[in-house]
Design goal:
Layout: H1 3-8, H2 17-30, H3 40-45, H4 49-63, H5 72-75, E1 119-123, H6 129-142, E2 151-153, H7 157-164, E3 174-179, E4 185-198, E5 201-213, H8 222-235, E6 242-246, E7 255-263, H9 266-271, H10 283-289, E8 301-303, H11 309-320, E9 325-327, H12 331-338, E10 345-351, E11 357-370, E12 378-388, H13 394-407, E13 412-416, E14 431-442
Parallel strand pairs: 5-6, 12-13
Antiparallel strand pairs: 1-3, 2-11, 3-4, 4-5, 4-9, 6-14, 7-13, 7-14, 8-10, 10-11, 11-12
Helix pairs in contact: 11-12
Subcellular location: Cytoplasm, Cytosol; Membrane
Main location: cytoplasm
Membrane topology: Peripheral membrane protein
């Protein structure tokens, strides 16, 4: 029986009123007395959802002053204590050559990097539904959010398996950090294998994804340790280069592009105050401005099937050879990344009368939680993966893609101004946002490239 249980029992005949009063007083005092050491994570989780969000919003806004720069101008005055020790080019360097920043060091340490006391490394086994749920929770609460903390990513287990388990993925490259005391997952970083063309060089490397540290641990400088340990594990497989993208400026972007978005459900976006909407539009004007046809116009446009995989690879290879940074895809990778999966990704192909495939378009789905809104709790965004046109005009194919995405219940369609995307963005009433995406290479130097020469797009 707990102390609370004994206090709630009625007094026996021999108990005095004074004793009853004393026990009430004791109960009030015990309400403020911790029963042993309290876990700060448990204390936060015990609060009502709205109070948790207010605390996290305050923590997020407080941390903005020490965050990494988001523009090249800001980066000039920033000191990169960690990145200055890494094999990456320095900001402002004029690179005209191609090759590794540092030659391969054959001596790779066998012991994992040291973590702060009280934390341990964990290889995150995504085949366990429980562990996959833990990763979803960590990313959905801590990965990224808008500066006002009103919209937060809500990755599904199916999405994470798609993003983290392409062909030849390795378990040891799903790297986590846990608290020793309660085994809570508080840090994560992942790498997946990829072959890419960097100008004329074919390179086997890894794409680094989902770097995430719990909000309350960011002052412990755990991010550099995560990167070092993942680097060690990748080096053990004989791979010494990586590609990654970020919304912040690090040393040194090989290319920087902007994110554009096209409202599909303007009413909902305005009601949740979606960032980047045109402020000079009222609802009626926004609905009229963003109106789309009810049906698609291109004859022969249909969802991809597994049998389309070889022909999609063929048209992708021909198109991607036009760019300076592009993926080299296998049949298995094309099937993995493009074959439609419910609530994860969609691909449509254009089939001519003679049965040949000429054009294709693919996008993936990312859901977000809408916080503290009386009506809306979620938001669905479609992100353009690839679009290749040989017969139709790009603007016509993308307009049909918008119609299809809207019919599937997406609220907004997002695209980067990479590849040939500028040919349709403004024409189809996409609006440029204030978000930039910077591309980086680890231990590889090459001349900078404009966004229209980048064709490497990977879910992150």
């Amino acid at each position: 029986m707990t102390d609370t249980d004994s206090l709630e029992k009625a007094p026996t005949d021999g108990e005095s009123g004074g004793l009853k009063k004393s026990k009430k007083k004791q109960k009030r005092e015990n309400a403020w007395r911790p029963e042993g050491p309290r876990d700060p994570f448990a204390m936060l989780d015990s609060l009502p959802e709205k109070e948790q969000q207010e605390i996290q919003k305050a923590l997020h806004l407080f941390s903005l002053g020490t965050s990494l720069p988001k523009t090249l101008q800001q980066a000039k005055n920033h000191t990169y204590r960690f990145w200055d020790t890494q094999p990456v080019t320095k900001l402002g360097d004029h690179i005209t050559t191609h090759g590794p920043v540092e030659e391969v060091d054959a001596s790779i340490r066998n012991e994992p990097c040291l973590l702060p006391q009280g934390f341990s490394w964990d290889t995150v086994d995504l085949s366990s539904p429980f562990v996959l749920g833990e990763l979803c929770h960590l990313l959905n609460e801590n990965y990224m959010e808008e500066d006002d903390n009103t919209i937060r990513f809500n990755f599904s287990p199916e999405y994470l398996l798609w993003a983290l388990q392409p062909p030849n993925w390795l378990l040891q490259w799903n790297l986590g950090v846990r608290v020793d005391a309660n085994k809570k997952l508080v840090g994560f970083i992942a790498a997946v294998p990829a072959d890419v063309h960097i100008y004329e060089t074919k390179k086997g490397l890894v794409q680094v994804k989902f770097l995430c540290v719990h909000k309350k641990l960011r002052l412990k400088r755990m991010t550099p340790v995560l990167i070092r340990e993942l680097t060690r594990r990748v080096n053990q497989q004989g791979i010494y280069q990586a590609v990654y993208a970020a919304g912040t400026v690090l040393p040194t972007p090989i290319s920087s592009c902007s994110q554009w978005h096209r409202p599909l459900n303007p009413r909902k976006l305005m009601e949740v105050n979606y960032p980047g909407l045109k402020q000079n539009m009222n609802l009626q004007r926004a609905l009229k401005f963003n109106r789309l046809p009810e049906v698609t116009k291109i004859k022969g446009l249909r969802p991809m099937t597994k049998e389309d995989t070889p022909r999609i690879l063929s048209i992708l290879e021909k198109n991607l050879s036009n760019f300076h940074l592009s993926p080299l895809l296998s049949l298995q990778e094309v099937e993995h990344w493009f074959l439609p999966k419910e609530n994860v990704n969609d691909t449509y192909v254009l089939e001519a009368d003679n049965g040949t495939l000429t054009d294709m378009v693919s996008f993936y789905a990312v859901s977000s939680r809408v916080l503290n809104h009386p009506v809306h709790t979620s938001l669905r965004a479609a992100y353009l993966l690839y679009a290749v046109c040989n017969v139709t005009k790009m603007a016509d194919l993308m307009q049909d893609t918008l119609v299809l995405a809207k019919a599937k219940g997406f609220d907004v369609f997002c695209a980067l101004d990479v590849m040939d995307n500028m040919s349709f963005l403004e024409k189809l009433k996409f609006t440029i946002s204030d978000k930039s995406v910077h591309y980086y290479l680890y231990n590889w130097k090459c001349p900078l490239m404009s966004p229209d020469k980048v064709s490497l797009v990977f879910p992150n």
